[in-house]
Amino acid sequence: MHIIYIIQSLKDLSYYTGRTTNLTKRIKDHNLGLSKYSSTKKPFKLIWYCVFNDKKKAIKFEKYLKSGSGIVFRNKRLI
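The chain above was modelled as a monomer; its predicted structure follows.
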């Protein structure tokens, strides 16, 4: 099970998109400051997630969501 997720910083309202196999633990890690990129933006709340059975498809979709057109899609359709 591969999960693509979007969380929002309650500090500056920015978004972070990531991939994990354990969503509960990963969000907890973000909120504890254990994720280097997002450690200064905690706390976070979960905005959206999607589960994939195929790791390659999950990676491809995560990469898309981080692209320019993926960000537009995220803002229009997911959040």
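Residues 2-78 form a domain with the GIY-YIG endonuclease fold (CATH 3.40.1440).
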